[in-house]
Amino acid sequence: MKNIVNIAYSYHNSNKGITRIWTTLPMDHPDVTCTHSPEEKTIDDGNNELFYFTLKENEQFQMNYSIDTYKQNEQKMLTDKEKAFYLRSGTLVVVDEQMRNLAHEITAGAVTTMEKAKAIFNYTVTQYKYVYPPKGRGTKSFLQAKQGDCGEYSFLFSSLCRSIGIPCRTLIGSWANGKMGAHVWNELYDEQAGWVPVDCSLASLQKKKKFQFLFSNIRTLKWTAYFGQLEGQRVVFSYDAELYLSPKYNDLDKLTIVNSPYPPIAPFQIDGEPFYWGYEAVDGCAPYLQPVYMQFDQENLSLKPNKNEHNYLGKWKITETGAQGVFLKLKNWSYAAFFVFFTLSLLLSSPLVSALAAGSIIVTCISYIARKERILLFTFVTLYFLLFFMSNVIKLV
To answer: Could you tell me which CATH number the domain at 80-236 has?
Structure first.
């Protein structure tokens, strides 16, 4: 069953000079509306399509497209290139002796690929703490700090799986509703099941902070279910981190950056060193494409750095369609109506106003249920307010 969403992405070059941009957005697909054509396209060994283009000062890039939400890929065979790509070691996802020893310790007694991966999942979920934003990015930072966000959970899971020969990739994407809902999760490869979805960070939050998403527009699962299944409310921008950038990324020398009149923002550290987003790459790769990575003109180092997140990621908005979209709007409208009528009920002793407040929250709860968000909880709340609604209707009769 398809769950189509509409994605609107834009980037405004508010910087000085030319900004070079790489993206995994589907710029050359026939059903896409886009202000620019890619100047170059490359396909890497993991089958990621990377597009390259440039923006002049104050130039605006806009793109609109529709896509089905993420679903499990049941691909049963990998080419040698694909397998090597998703077993490789990098700067953020490290495969070395330390990781191999840790992975073997975690999976002791496990036999099958799925048993080993499940052991790694349980370890990652239980032994680390979700904290945003992290001070450092990558496996080694996460191991040391014992805390990080969805990216760090995903990097560690990939590292541990790859260390014992299980192809694994980090999925860079977004929640499938609202603005700028960035998220990262994993897929591991099993010959019988294909690519199996795993979300360690959501599992950790559901295990340790059960009410984190209580009133959100995101469905939630029991924490153990995040190994092997997801809720169907996300889209993928790129498959894996550390994707090689072509044309070649021309890193600026660290000393040039640090000694500039206005050193740029370093949003995090990699291997204990500040990483300057937009001025350097990770061994020729973007740390991740969500859904873009860029290189600013060196001229910008003579200006105060732009602290707006849109300067580094652009903007995106994802709108659900069909029944999901209808019930989301209904939920928002009825929730707003509830607050209006509830406030009036505090000022007026009116059964009619109280009935309207109860009716509004009943519609809100039904919308949650229709969207499969905390069904048991909102069924109970619906029944409670239904009794309250009926008691006020009886007063009116």
So the answer is: 3.10.620.30
